[in-house]
Amino acid sequence: MKKTSRPEIPRKAIYRLSIYLRCLQRLKANGIRTVASEALAAAAGVKSTQLRKDLTYFGQFGTRGLGYDVEQLGALISDVLGTTRLQPVILVGVGNLGSALLSYRGFQQEGFEIIAAFDQFPEKKRSRKFATPMLGMDKVEEFVRKHAVKMAVLTVPPEAAQEVVNTLIEIGITGILNFSTITLQVPEDVMVNNVNLAIELENLSYFVQQ
Amino acid sequence: MKKTSRPEIPRKAIYRLSIYLRCLQRLKANGIRTVASEALAAAAGVKSTQLRKDLTYFGQFGTRGLGYDVEQLGALISDVLGTTRLQPVILVGVGNLGSALLSYRGFQQEGFEIIAAFDQFPEKKRSRKFATPMLGMDKVEEFVRKHAVKMAVLTVPPEAAQEVVNTLIEIGITGILNFSTITLQVPEDVMVNNVNLAIELENLSYFVQQ
Q1: In sequence order, what E strands does chain B have?
Q2: Of A176, B3, B32, B84, whose CB count within 10 A is highest?
């Protein structure tokens, strides 16, 4: 299913592209039209050799002595990341964290729209505070296929996570933002990014004791 | 300021300790009292050689042929991570994401309590839906020193983030969970863990296009 037209970019480089994009957006907002690779690298917290290497994955864009065109490079990165249009995302599991994320308005600003939330007991979770439609898990297959959704935010309890993920993969989800505290088993063509707030805090907790 | 009594454990190993702890908690909840290193490693998604190596940082705990004592190993890891007692945390920046995190009740279950939230305009952000005290940034120094807070959750806009961090470090914060989208400059003895939900989604977005 891989398109051969797109170069294979390492996963860590994709993260850095997102950071470069943020830096470019700030530069643009400040009216800056060109940026030297050293300055962009410093803003992103990477070495300029790293930046130049990352940008060679999709061709050279700096003009020697002039640097990068802020708007052009931003548009290019956005295109590579697939965020030029609003991307549909579903959220599965409307517990404490799921509810918090549904009330967070920041995803849309960044190009992602949670177009529906799914829960085992949707009738209990519906509330006037959520604009997002809330549906039962029995509706997820029809919904995902109809709206060609590829990405899901997973906020179910750990004991349910693997089973829910198996279902999501079966119906065509290939990108999962996993907030549950278990390590998910997925096939190679499915990408899972883990966000575990408790683990990040525990990690800090260890270091602040030092 | 480093204690010499505690071995230096690599940062990635600390993350894995958190994952082992979650696995041990689930085993304990299921009434399982001992676990072989292979089984614990499989549950955590690591190789058993990795698990055994990580556990040697604080001594050997497996009994050959019997495996690890689930409760004892859990207690030990929890002690190393500093999560045996509820840890005080402050949250700085009560925007969309800050509000969402304040309404998330999950931190406390994991051993962290957000004991106060700070904002530039606290009077505008106070609401009956938050039980957490909401204070102005002019109160942060007194509060942090009085309650010996070491950890902060940072949810301020990117343009304010570095300045706020400089203040937090000055008053004794040494662990920062950074949700803002900029790369923070901090001294070596301060630990920053970055959580960027938009960047995680963008990263998935790239892969689901493949």
Answers
A1: 34-35, 68-69, 87-92, 112-119, 134-136, 151-154, 175-178, 191-194
A2: A176
| A and B: number of Cβ contacts within 8 A | 200
Match domain B11-80 to its CATH number in 2.40.480.10, 1.10.260.40, 3.40.50.300, 1.10.10.10.
Answer: 1.10.10.10
Residue in chain B lying closest to A107 (CA)? B198
Of chain A, the percentage scoring pLDDT greater than 70 comes to: 93
Please report the ipTM that was assigned to this predicted complex. Answer: 0.80
Q: Per the CB < 8 Å rule, is A205 touching B104? A: no
Q: Which residues of A touch B50 (CB under 8 A)?
A: none
Delimit the domains of chain B by residue range: 11-80, 87-201
pLDDT at A60: 59
Spatial neighbors of B2 by CB under 8 A, at least 6 apart, are A210
Alpha-carbon gap: B64 to the closest alpha carbon of chain A (Å): 27
- CA A92/CA A102 separation, integer angstroms: 11
Residues 105-164 of A with CB under 8 A from B: 105-107, 110-112, 150-151, 158-159
d(Cα B126, Cα B135) in Å, to the nearest integer? 9
Q: Is CATH 3.40.50.720 the classification given to domain B87-201?
A: yes
Residue of B nearest to A148 (CA): B208
